[in-house]
Amino acid sequence: MRAMVLDAPGRPLRLDHARARPEPGAGELLIRVHACGVCRTDLHVVDGDLPGPAAALVPGHEIVGTVAAVGDGVADIGIGARVGVPWLGWTCGECPFCLSGRENLCDRARFTGYQIDGGYADYAVANAGFCFPIPAAFSDQAAAPLLCAGLIGYRAWRMAGKARNIGFYGFGAAAHIAIQVARFHGQNVYAFTRPGDAAGQDFARGLGAVWAGDSETRPPDKLDAALIFAPVGALVPAALAATDKGGVVVCAGIHMSDIPSFAYRLLWEERTLRSVANLTRRDGEEFFEIAGRIPIQTTTTAYDLEQANEALSALRDGRLEGAAVLLTNGHDAQEPRAEESRS
Fold first, then answer.
1. How does 19-48 read in b/e, with b if 16+ C-beta sit within 10 Å?
2. Using CA atoms, how far apart are residues 340 and 299, in angstroms rounded to an integer?
3. Buried b (16+ CB within 10 A) or exposed e, 168-199
4. 55: exposed, middle or buried (C-beta count within 10 Å: 0-12, 13-18, 19+)?
5. Which of 140, 216, 261, 337 is the most exposed place for a label (fewest CB within 10 A)?
6. What count of other Cβ atoms lies within 10 Å of the Cβ of residue 17?
């Protein structure tokens, strides 16, 4: 099979035309990959921000495909079923976190496209218990960003509580999905982008943001909550300063640059600062149910599998509107294609 391989952090991915197709073990599925989203976490893995990826790793954890083979012990998912594979690839089921409904914090968790080979390939193997059925209403391309950008955005949004005014710092793949959840619940969304990113601000307004501006500007109203999707530590004090008394600031990324020191007065008055770590399978079940009811629409740019480095560069440089998706199912993507994917 074809696979895009990370030989070492900081290097471009290498195309391997003849990587051995994996075989499913007990409790696993062999999945014919049709689409795989390109997530900012992939960028952190490739660029070396996250330590210790598996050797000769195949990145990618927003996988949509069909089951090509099943391992021993898999009884409830058959060949031909369409499934999605998220970041959380395996947990021990035994540690205090797993036993208390917090498997996202499992002491021995393993992650797709990091410790487990992911979806930048024609085939991938995944633990059947950590795969989600994909609603028929979503195309492969539309569904791919839901597997991480959507799930993490949903978990971060849920931690914001019943905020009336909610700020999104960084308006990329996760934010363009989470805003639809927030608007569905009647919340006012204030979008913050890089200074000078007029296109990103227009994109946010088009999705229902009541205000959009750069991250160095105070919004016209106090925020009840703020979600930080951009991996920029300097946004933490900025978001705290824009948040009203009793509000919450949620850091939604797996990696962030160092947070600068800030005056205690920004945290005082019972503001809360917290992070999001990974996801749980319950998050996925809840999110896919609401995604179909809204219904979520994803804006994507498609690349062929062999263009993975180009897609990562576009993400790194902030040149994407919405999310990038690698297509592996025979699409001829000589040039990247933009698509608004509607359910």
1. beebebeebbbbbbbbbbbbbbbbbbbbee
2. 4
3. bbbbbbbbbbbbbbbbeeebbbbbbbeeebee
4. exposed
5. 261
6. 8
Q: How many CB atoms lie within 10 A of CB 107?
A: 11
Residue 57, Cβ neighbours under 10 Å: how many?
Answer: 24
What are phi and psi for residue 5, nearest 5 degrees?
-115, 135
- Cβ atoms of residues 92 and 98 within 8 Å: yes
C-alpha 33/C-alpha 169 separation (Å) is: 32
Q: Which residue has the tokens 């024609």?
A: 122
Helices (DSSP H) in 65-172: which residue ranges?
A: 96-99, 140-143, 149-159
Neighbours of 298 (CB within 10 A): 28
Say how far apart CA 151 and CA 283 lie, in whole Å. 7
Cβ-proximal residues to 90 (8 Å cutoff; 6+ apart), any chain? 109, 110, 116, 127, 130
DSSP-derived 3-state class of residue 3: strand
pTM of the predicted structure, to 2 decimals: 0.93
- Residue 112's nearest CA partner among 42, 177, 46 is 42
Please tell me the number of Cα atoms within 13 Å of 337 on its side-chain side: 13
Tens of pLDDT along the chain (343 residues) come to: 999 999 999 999 999 999 999 999 999 999 999 999 999 999 999 999 999 999 999 999 999 999 999 999 999 999 999 999 999 999 999 999 999 999 999 999 999 999 999 999 999 999 999 999 999 999 999 999 999 999 999 999 999 999 999 999 999 999 999 999 999 999 999 999 999 999 999 999 999 999 999 998 999 999 999 999 999 999 999 999 999 999 999 999 999 999 999 999 999 999 999 999 999 999 999 999 999 999 999 999 999 999 999 999 999 999 999 999 999 974 434 344 445 443 3
